[in-house]
Amino acid sequence: MTELFDIRDADQSISDLISQVEVGKDFFVTRNEKPVALIIKFEDAEEQFPKLNFGAGKGIIPEWPDEEWEKADEEIRAAYDPERKWSGE
Predict the structure, then answer these.
(1) Which residues 6+ apart lie within 8 Å of 30 measured at CB?
(2) pLDDT tens per residue, the chain (89 residues)?
(3) I want to staple 39 with a disulfide (CB 3.0 to 4.6 A). Which of 2, 5, 6, 27 is the partner?
């Protein structure tokens, strides 16, 4: 089970916490009894927070020419134009 440490206690004993993390323990740091941080061994960080693959959609999602982007921009601007009357009004 992951232990909880109040931020003040963690601040005073950070060196001891780090030593325990190095041997495999994890700790939640809390503020006002609410978890705000997780201290884990660095090697385990990628397992819990995997890297994002930003190129995963390449070739699947079609690329738009500049004209299409400009058309989309115009549609968005028109949608947020305060002078425009909405069809639902």
Answers:
(1) 4, 5, 6, 7, 36
(2) 678 888 888 888 889 988 988 898 998 999 998 989 988 887 766 676 777 788 887 888 788 899 999 998 888 888 887 676 655 44
(3) 27
Instruction: Give the domain ranges of the chain.
Output: 3-48
What the block records as the tokens of 59 is 């070739």
Check the CA dihedral 28-30-34-36 and report its sign. negative
Alpha helix ranges (H) inside 14-65? 14-22, 42-48
The whole-model pTM stands at 0.45
- Find all residues with CB under 8 Å of 21, minimum gap 6, and list them: 27, 39, 40, 41
Q: Which CATH superfamily is domain 3-48 in?
A: YefM-like domain (3.40.1620.10)
What's the token pair of residue 61? 């999602």
83 DSSP β-pair partners:
none
